[in-house]
Amino acid sequence: VAWLRVDTQTILTIAGHVITKNHRISVSHGDGSWSLVLREVAPGDGGRYMCQINTEPMMSQLHLLQVVVPPDIDDEASSREIIIKEGENAAMQCVASGTPPPSIAWRREDARHFKIDNSTLVSKSSGEWLNLTGVERATSGAYLCIASNGVPPSVSKRIILHVIFAPSVWTGRVAIRALSGTAVSLQCTAEAYPVPQTYWVLNGEQRLVNGTKYRHSRSSRGYRHTATLVVSNMSREDAGSYRCHVENSAGKAYAD
Fold it and tell me: Where in this chain does the record put each Ig-like domain (predicted)?
């Protein structure tokens, strides 16, 4: 009885002797059967194996070994952080391997729907590439590519999309009345990326600086930012027009 690897026409064992130099292969015999044992199976071991009995005529039995491998995402070949201008097209790639070949699914990390083909809203997409046309600021965020092939575990990669756009800014209340000696809080809201610089100007001339009189702060969530100015110990001299300025590398804007 001999075992052969059909794909390479290699004799592996004859009777109880191992012919190949592959140390992972052994043969066992008992109860009238001969078994080929292959330890530490690797993807390259997949293929056709034949058990051959040297009778007249010769008898043989063919075995097909399929080696399954969980999916793996190639971080180097796949997209990483993407920075693109609003209105342009974005393409993300997710390269995965495994046996059988894995399928790729895309979705947003926050589970929100996203646009493909400029108009179609979807919750997920499939394929090695995710193509987004005419990206908007709302398109920015974290996307997940998920590779699966029925062999657990599935794997995923997180890709961040940043959309660059010039600031837009608005304020809530137009006019505020305050008692002398009290503190007043003013706010403006802006949308911008990259994260903008914000500052306040009084009566179109005086740029207000942080200190005991003025306290300026900013909070951000994604591409939306809130600038707050607190004016302490109000007096007649503090009356006037307060303008919120927002600037980044893509442009500038202001609101009174």
Answer: 1-54, 71-156, 167-256
CATH classification of 2-65 is 2.60.40.10, yes or no?
A: yes
Nearest to 64 by CA among 52, 49, 51: 49
In the prediction, which pLDDT does 132 show? 93
**In angstroms, rounded to a whole number, what is the distance separating the alpha carbons of residues 167 and 193?**
7
CA distance 167 to 174: 20
pLDDT band for position 30 (cuts 50, 70, 90): confident
Q: 172-255 falls under which CATH superfamily? A: Immunoglobulins (2.60.40.10)
Q: Was domain 70-165 assigned CATH 2.60.40.10?
A: yes
Please spell the DSSP secondary structure of 196-225, one letter per residue: PEEEEEETTTEE--SSSSEEEEEEEETTEE
Q: Mind listing the pLDDT tens digit for each residue in 176-185?
A: 888 999 999 9
- Residue 134 CA to residue 4 CA, distance in Å, equals 58
Question: d(Cα 229, Cα 210) in Å, to the nearest integer?
Answer: 9
